[in-house]
Specification:
It is a single chain. With 267 residues, the chain is an alpha/beta fold. It has a domain of 178 residues: Rossmann fold (3-Layer(aba) Sandwich). The chain is built from seven helices and eleven strands. It has a nine-stranded mixed sheet with strand order 9-8-7-10-6-1-4-5-11, sandwiched between helices. Strands 2-3 form a two-stranded antiparallel ribbon. A hairpin with a 2-residue loop joins strand 7 and strand 8. The longest helix is centred in the first third of the chain and has 15 residues. The relative contact order is 0.15.
Length: 267
């Protein structure tokens, strides 16, 4: 009986989770705040509240849940940008990430360069899963996840609304035009998350305080061996959307027809 008990302990030890998850998070303007466009062009971000990209927060929440389920051992958050990006990484640590990596650059990066930076970091960190939101709410490019998977030559699951880890595979459910599609991806893999995957938790004050004391690892694109190149596109002009005119009410179908006939702007 003693031999059997020891055997069970050994099996349980080797059955523990060893999966590492790398989560990319972006520092964006709070979606609940009205954005003002400067007269000279561009968005005025001087006094705007900045937050973690909502889709990335969903990816981080799912990674933390996998760790709580003993399916993952470590969750590492990474963000790219200027010094203010560290606020988002502190938030990620407060939510439950184990480590945070800050890739410091002041250049405006194209999706391909971001994917190259994440690719280089992935080769250094050797995660089993790279997770990020399906898109960033500021640029809405929806390209980084797919480009990263291509650069790494890893399988990818995009726009996922359900994720289950089973051994060396991850099963994902994604939304497509015809309904739902379920894929089994061999690890390592790249995952991009959709809104229906989960509801992120609220951060607690004690965890915020603890996160401020945790160190941030800082890297530069040069240290990752990635050359920053100019974007292949150029923003010519930024303008606010045209204000829509208020609608009118009609009391009958006959009055509606008369309005359609007489007011060309309605047509």
């Amino acid at each position: 009986m003693i031999f059997k008990a020891r055997l069970v302990i050994i099996v349980l030890f080797f059955g523990e989770a060893v999966m590492k998850i790398l989560v990319a998070v972006k520092h964006v303007v709070d979606p609940n705040i009205k954005i003002q466009v400067k007269a000279a062009g561009g968005v005025d971000t001087t006094h705007l509240k900045m937050v973690m990209n909502p889709f990335d927060e969903i990816a981080l929440e799912e990674a933390i849940r996998l760790k709580e389920q003993k399916k993952a051992q470590e969750v590492v958050a990474v963000s790219i940008g200027g010094p203010l990006v560290q606020e988002t990484l502190r938030h990620a640590l407060a939510l439950g990430a184990d480590r945070a990596i800050f890739i410091h650059t002041d250049f405006l990066l194209s999706p391909l360069v971001v994917a190259k930076l994440l690719c280089a970091l992935s080769k250094q960190e050797q995660p089993h899963l790279v997770m990020l939101g399906k898109q960033a709410i500021d640029s809405d490019n929806n390209q980084v996840g797919q480009m990263l998977a291509a650069l790494l030559a890893w399988p990818q699951g995009t726009f996922i609304s359900k994720l289950v880890v089973e051994g060396e595979e991850v099963k994902v459910t994604r939304e497509i035009d015809g309904g739902l599609e379920t894929l089994a991806l061999r690890l390592p893999a790249v995952i991009t998350t959709d809104l229906r995957l989960n509801t992120p938790r609220y951060v607690t004050l004690p965890n915020i305080v603890k996160a401020k004391q945790k160190p941030l690892a800082t890297l530069t694109p040069a240290e990752l061996g990635v050359e920053i190149t100019a974007p292949r596109y150029q923003t010519l002009k930024i303008m606010p959307p045209v204000l829509r005119q208020g609608g009118i009410k009609v009391r009958s179908a006959k009055e509606l027809i008369e309005k359609l006939k007489t007011e060309a702007r309605v047509l």
